[in-house]
Amino acid sequence: MRIGIIGPGALGCLFAARLYLTVNEQDQILLIDHRAQRAAELNKQGILYESETGTERCPIVVSSSPESVGRLDALLSCVKSHTLEQSLQFAAPLLSPSTLLLFLQNGIGHLKYGEQKRLPAVIAYATSSEGATCLAPGHILHAGKGHTTLGFLSPGDRGEDEQLGKLCTTLQNANLDSSVSGDIRTRLWAKLFVNVGINALTAIYNRTNGQLLTSCAARSRIKTLVREAEKVALALRIPIEEDPVTATLRVCKKTGRNISSMLQDIRNLRATEIDAINGEISRLGRETGIATPYNDEAIAQVKKLEDRYLVSRSDTNEN
Ligand code: PAF
Domain spanning 185-313: which superfamily? Predict the structure, then answer.
């Protein structure tokens, strides 16, 4: 199998390194980066994969020229949601109608690609709770083992199911706990509730996930943000399997020491995923006639932080 991973951020490097360390000789793992200079540096340095057992150097080929890579069997998209459109144009030479394109973004802004079926690829989605922290470019810490759930928005045919099953097995063999779900939309929404309740507030209050629980104001805002998202989900008839506030508070506690991806973005002067997370609740709220004042307020506050800290929006699309 030829597997490409586009976006050498924390999750992209984590998947690339785990796959590189475990696949058969006939398989090929490649990283794709739109920034030529960074790709050259990563090729020199290798991907440094740090875990509790030590640090391993993985000399993975990093290409900034998709034309020379050619078609892949699977492409894992690990770019940030706000760079997705641009990265899909860049990645076009890697795709074919039989390429499995797996989206791993936070939020639900990217569901449109699976719904519209315009891309020449077999489109699948995944949500992952693997804990990866970027210590430096191409140097990641596998901070906590998680689970990755993969699936199609609508049932695939037999060949597509086999493709997804094969990728899932490859991830499992790479020691990335994974499974295929028949209802990935529900799983993506379940993760969305958690991100809606945690990410923006960690950025606004400059706190770790766990520290949100020790502030009455933040704790109460978690609840109001998630309840609004729940109302929108119910209006859209999205199945909800567990009370989303309970689930969010649990994740907050379990990942207490985590610096959320949004707080990391703000601290590193990068654009955040606010539009794909709380922004989608606000947008779908307008579509379904549900007021979302708490999400609207959080969005405005995060955008203010972005405006204050972003040196240049156009030059900070790190993944
Ligand atoms: O975006 C993140 O950081 C994570 O999805 C989560 C669950 C909030 C944990 O930090």
Answer: N-(1-d-carboxylethyl)-l-norvaline Dehydrogenase; domain 2 (1.10.1040.10)
* Ligand 1: nearest atom to the Cα of 258: 10
- Which residue's alpha carbon is at the smallest distance from atom 6 of ligand 1? 260
Q: What is the DSSP letter of 35?
A: -
Q: What burial letters (b/e) apply to 128-145, b meaning 16+ CB within 10 Å?
A: bbbbbbbeebbbbbbbee
**pLDDT, tens digit, for every residue of 192-225?**
999 999 999 999 999 999 999 999 999 999 999 9
In this structure, the chain runs to a length of 319
Which atom in ligand 1 lies closest to the alpha carbon of residue 263?
3
CB 79 within 8 A of CB 48: no
Provide Rg for the chain, Cα atoms: 19
Cut 0.90: pTM above it: yes
AA identity, residue 46 = G
